[in-house]
Amino acid sequence: METEEPEANTEQTIEVGNYKRTIQKRPVTFTCPWCNITSTELHYPGNPPQWHRECKKEAYRADSAKRMKELRERRAEANPPRRGPGRPRKP
Ligand SMILES: [Zn+2]
Question: Which of 1, 6, 24, 81 is 20 to 30 Å apart from 65, CA to CA?
């Protein structure tokens, strides 16, 4: 009976040595889609903000409220309120 060993050559050696990586904050200018105000904030590169922190919170809250509303509407669509057994009313 043979035992097959899976190749386990996924190891990688990364030499860092004395190299130090320094990340500096930079001014990032963005226009907040929530309040439409352009402002500049100091941020680390790579993940620049697009929202004010407060606005993002606000938007998140509004968004979840909106999602709840949509969910409720979708449910209402799936189960429309019943009307009485239908004889069309004649004027
Ligand atoms: Zn804002």
Answer: 81
